[in-house]
């Protein structure tokens, strides 16, 4: 299975303000900014990432962790495992207009985890 990244999703009230704060404090670059979520990291260490998120554009739940997979098929496989484990699916398998395939589940401690792959 190809896990490509594991990224914390920091809940914030203002994505632009939070992104600017973390960018300046830690000399990070903004890799992606959709207005409601931004991804930051150092230029010389692309595996190190932080996401700041005010809300989610299409899901009712905001994840606390994003786990990136190499392929959409692997996202589907993890989805099947989560269902088989009896975990609550809080956002169904979805192909999002911004180019990702994803779903969210709630773990046994109440954390919402996003599993995602770029399409």
UniProtKB/TrEMBL annotation:
Residues 2-118 form the VOC domain. Pfam families: Glyoxalase (PF00903). Coiled coil: none annotated. SUPFAM superfamilies: Glyoxalase/Bleomycin resistance protein/Dihydroxybiphenyl dioxygenase (SSF54593). It comes from the Bacteria. Signal peptide: none annotated. This is VOC domain-containing protein. It comes from Luteipulveratus halotolerans.
């Amino acid at each position: 299975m190809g896990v490509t990244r594991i990224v914390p999703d920091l809940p914030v009230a203002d994505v632009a303000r939070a992104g600017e704060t973390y960018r300046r404090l830690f000399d990070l670059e903004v890799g992606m900014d959709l207005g409601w979520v931004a991804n930051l990291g150092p230029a010389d260490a692309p595996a190190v990432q932080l996401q700041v998120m005010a809300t989610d554009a299409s899901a009712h739940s905001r994840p606390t962790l994003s786990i990136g997979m190499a392929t959409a098929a692997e996202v589907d496989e993890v989805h099947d495992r989560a269902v088989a484990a009896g975990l609550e699916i809080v956002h169904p398998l979805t192909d999002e207009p911004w180019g990702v395939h994803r779903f969210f589940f709630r773990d046994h401690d109440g954390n919402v985890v996003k599993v995602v792959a770029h399409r």
